[in-house]
Amino acid sequence: MLIVSDDLGFQTVLRTVFQNGGFDNCTEVVNASDAADKIKQLSPNLAVVDFSMPEMNGLQLARQLKAREPALPIFMVTADYDVDSEKKALESGITAVFSKLDDVTTLLANARAVCGLA
């Protein structure tokens, strides 16, 4: 699993939740450039991408990741959730969109289902 967020505290929360939920290999990066490098090295089974990042937003990154790994499921997390953003995300190839304000157990349950761990 690849976690892409410039919010180090949120990265730590996600890594902890996913590791406790059965994901053994969680790699975190803080920007799109690092994500592009890691995707080549790791071939992760899921990417969790923050929408708001300084270098490139989550939609732009999702398009790049999908170009390299078309079958890669991508979840986007955002603090500014709205229906229009979700629609744009799904059109960009993102599998699902979650609010950072939601309970992370919903994110975990969906991740487990997408990765065949449910």
Describe the structure.
By secondary structure, the protein is of the alpha/beta class. It has a single domain (2-113), classed as 3-Layer(aba) Sandwich (Rossmann fold). 47% of the residues lie in helices and 16% in strands. The protein has helices at residues 8-20, 32-42, 58-68, 83-91, 104-114, and strands spanning 2-4, 27-29, 47-50, 74-78, 96-99. It has a five-stranded parallel beta sheet with strand order 2-1-3-4-5, with helices on both faces. Helix 3 (58-68) links the parallel strand 3 and strand 4. Helix 2 (32-42) runs parallel beside helix 3. The protein starts with a strand and ends with a helix.
Alpha-carbon distance between the termini?
A: 16 Å
Identify the quaternary structure here.
single chain
Global structural class = alpha/beta
Spatial arrangement of strands, main beta sheet: 2-1-3-4-5
Number of helices: 5
CATH topology: Rossmann fold
| Mean pLDDT score | 91
**Total domain modules:** 1
